[in-house]
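Section handout, structural biology tutorial.
Before the tutorial, make sure you can parse a SMILES string by hand: atoms, branches in parentheses, ring closures as digits. In the record below the ligand is zinc ion, and the chain has 218 residues. In the tutorial you will relate the predicted structure tokens back to the input. Do not try to memorize them.
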Amino acid sequence: MGDEVLAINDTPTTSLLATASDPALFADDLDRKLLSLPISRPISVQVRRAGTERTLTLVPEPVCATRYVLKTSEGITAYSDGFDIAVSSGLIAYTRNDDELAYVIAHETGHVINRNFETSQTERRDEDRADTLSVRLSHCAGYDPQIGIAYLLHRESDDMLRWFRSRSHRSRKGRVERMRAEAANVTCPAQPTYPAQTNGQETPSKRDPSLARRPAAQ
Ligand SMILES: [Zn+2]
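Predicted structure of the complex:
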């Protein structure tokens, strides 16, 4: 509490600040730098505490580093930049129960775990993997995926533009059928649908500080 961070792994914070892409978002830069460090090696943090300089040794633990951001908007949308997840207040109001909201959040979390971020070009394979993982994650978190995935059918019936959606994407009904089959045999703990890169060095997509990436269809 009240520590002033002077250096991380012998790199002074003043030089980190000097190379920050946006000094106003330095805390995010620092987050990213810490996340990129290997989890197998302790981190040395030099701080000034009550006027005295001290060196702390922190042992990293793998955790879910995703931030969940509430966007105040009437639009019904949820999206991810591969790191963080935004959910609109409109979507929360639209979902009919916690299981549906859990499905949507678990789907986006599936994209983060599988290290892909969703755009209009997202491949069907990535969508299928996020769907598969969404069933496992929501189930293991104590929600009912069979109830949750009904969200997609609800959306389908309200989606006036559904005929104009990309044909490269599976229909929502097709996705629900796949997930119903998955939900019938789901077990915990949830496993990624293919091995995530866990060496701590991969930054496959650039974190979007405002999460302003164009929303994609859920
Ligand atoms: Zn998706």
